[in-house]
Design goal:
The complex is a heterodimer. Chain A is mainly alpha-helical. Chain A has 13 helices and no strands. The N and C termini of chain B lie far apart (55 Å). The chains are: A mainly alpha, B mainly alpha. The interface between A and B is large, with 87 and 89 residues.
């Protein structure tokens, strides 16, 4: 009886795992199939072809989009880490006028749904003349309230004696932050880095609003425009373009899955 | 002390400025835009309560709200049941627990745009994977995304599939907090597996369930890329979402005042629904 229940448990888990993994495996395999074979359920293509990738690469600037996405997501992540920890350090460990107000404002901002500010932010970008610029994609994300609160929470637990003795040695506050706090904060920094990068990498609504020029599009945006514009034509080509976005993420996920799960579950971000 | 003041202001100052420009100003301006008519090209004009009046009688907006409730009525219960079931399975003595967890979480890390494109191929009527499977076991194919009755449920199932790994982690964390002594006590009392689940596990997980309900509801109101990619809001507008309508008003019709009004209304609706859900769950628990 007990044996039977174990078997049922593993059978159930296996079916669940297949449900989550099989569609991605099928997708990867479909990109190597010729058009005639595209719909088949088999995971191993009968005839292997790279035509889907050639077509996709030739029809839309996916190489350029990969560079754009990498640049935008990396810049945002670095900014959120550096500026975010400076802010969080000040909010956690320094006394300055307006600190309680800043704390309260940060929490309040997190409670406002993004849809409320979407249009005013868009009109702001238009008025700044930032449509079709990297600035539109990056600047509104330079600070992240969730990241700041997480870092602040972590920085609050670091002993005051470390700060005091560093000050005795004449260290400036930013130096204390980057040479003493940062090495102690690797877990929280990696959590912030992953969810920030993934959020920026997967974001699609904001780029759809502020970028129209194909050469400036990020991957999810170009992918969407390509699929909707009918540029893809066949299943294989459409999925091949999606692979450009998925492969780097899946590789990173295979190596850092524990960090990914901790980070994305902890922040409440769902790409 | 003076030095600390100065460093503090210098280090937090940029963030304060950022908040003013990219959070406080947009929130305030959203409330102004509600009373304006503006196409971004000509000078904005004062529109009084026109946008609000229009919204209250706008069949398309209320259709989108109704669609969202259809989505939520399937998505939220399904999300709770699947996440809870998988979390309970993962919470046992298992070989390869981290593999299972990683498998369930995989769709969470994949972009929503990719998932939408992938699933439009899975759901395709003639060549779609799901219909091929149905035909193989002797059933007739279903026009998932082109039948007004099945399109929104199909999207709801897909979103549940994409996010379930996230909620599994939340439930797993909750399960760790159920004290061993309680589990042992209820077992000694001779409770059946179902009784243990019903009278210990489920009530203990109430905070997690509230979180799952709240987050999946908010997520449902933010539905955009799925209908945008898979159906364009059709068939018969049955998958048109509020954010898709907001996006089209801003981007396709250049109606900034009206788009902002939709945004404010959506924020209010989210607030009301989430508040009502919490009250209801609180009352249900008291019974």
């Amino acid at each position: 009886m007990k044996q039977l229940r174990r078997i049922a448990l593993y059978a159930g888990l296996t079916i669940a795992a297949i449900t989550f993994i099989y569609p991605f495996l099928w997708m990867a395999s479909a990109t190597f199939k010729p058009a005639a074979e595209a719909g088949s359920l088999a995971l191993i293509p009968h005839d292997i072809t790279l035509d889907n990738y050639r077509t996709m690469w030739a029809r839309a600037p996916f190489g350029r989009a990969l560079v754009n996405s990498t640049f935008v997501a990396t810049t945002i992540t670095l900014a959120v880490l550096v500026f975010g920890s400076m802010t969080a350090y000040a909010m956690a460990r320094l006394n300055f006028r307006g600190r309680p107000a800043l704390n309260a404002a940060t929490i309040a901002v997190l409670m406002v749904p993004g849809q409320l500010t979407l249009i005013p932010l868009y009109t702001l970008i238009v008025q700044l003349g930032w449509i079709d610029t990297y600035a539109a994609l990056i600047v509104p994300y330079l600070f992240n309230a969730t990241a700041i609160l997480m870092l602040r929470q972590f920085f609050l637990q670091i002993p005051q004696s470390l700060i005091d003795s560093a000050r005795m040695d004449g260290m400036s506050e930013p130096r204390i932050l980057f040479t003493i706090f940062w090495p102690l904060s690797k877990p929280v920094l990696s959590i912030v880095a992953i969810f920030t990068f993934m959020g920026a990498w997967n974001e699609v609504l904001w780029p759809l609003l502020v970028v129209r020029e194909q050469n400036l599009m990020t991957l999810p945006q170009l992918l969407t425009v390509f699929a909707l514009g009918g540029g893809a034509g066949t299943v294989g080509v459409s999925l091949a373009s999606a692979m450009v976005l998925v492969v780097p993420v899946v590789i990173a996920y295979m190596f850092l899955q524990r960090n990914f799960i901790e980070s994305m579950a902890g922040s409440g971000i769902k790409g | 002390m003076r030095a600390e003041q100065k460093s503090g202001s210098l280090m937090a100052g940029p963030y304060a400025a950022f908040l003013l420009v990219f959070a406080v100003y947009p929130i305030a301006f959203a409330l102004v835009l509600v009373f304006l008519q503006w196409d971004l090209v000509t000078v904005p004009t004062f529109a009084g309560a026109n946008n609000i009046r229009l919204l209250l009688h706008d069949g398309r907006f209320w259709r989108a709200v109704a669609n969202t409730f259809v989505f939520l009525s399937i998505h939220v219960p399904l999300q709770i049941v699947t996440a809870l079931a998988l979390a309970l399975a993962l919470n046992r003595q298992l070989a390869g627990r981290s593999f299972w967890r990683a498998a369930f979480f995989l769709p969470v890390v994949i972009s929503g745009a990719v998932v939408a494109i992938l699933w439009s191929h899975l759901y395709a009527t003639d060549v779609g994977l799901i219909n091929r499977l149905l035909v193989k076991i002797g059933l007739s194919p279903v026009p998932w995304l082109t039948d007004p009755r099945t399109a929104m449920p199909a999207i709801a199932v897909m979103v549940t599939w994409k996010n379930v790994g996230f909620y599994v982690i939340i439930y797993l964390a909750g399960l760790q907090y159920i004290p061993r002594s309680c589990q042992e006590a209820i077992e000694i009392e001779g409770a059946s597996a179902w009784q243990r689940f019903r009278y210990l596990t489920l009530p203990s997980l109430l905070p997690q369930t509230i979180l799952v309900v709240t987050l999946s509801t908010i997520n449902g109101f933010q539905l955009f890329i799925e209908p945008y990619v898979m159906t364009g809001g059709g068939p018969l507008r049955r998958t048109y979402s509020v954010v898709l309508y907001l996006y089209n008003n801003a981007f396709a019709y250049q109606k900034m005042g009206y788009a902002a009004t939709i945004g404010v209304a959506l924020a209010l609706i989210i607030g009301i629904v989430v508040f009502a859900q919490r009250r209801l769950i609180g009352r249900a628990e008291a019974l």
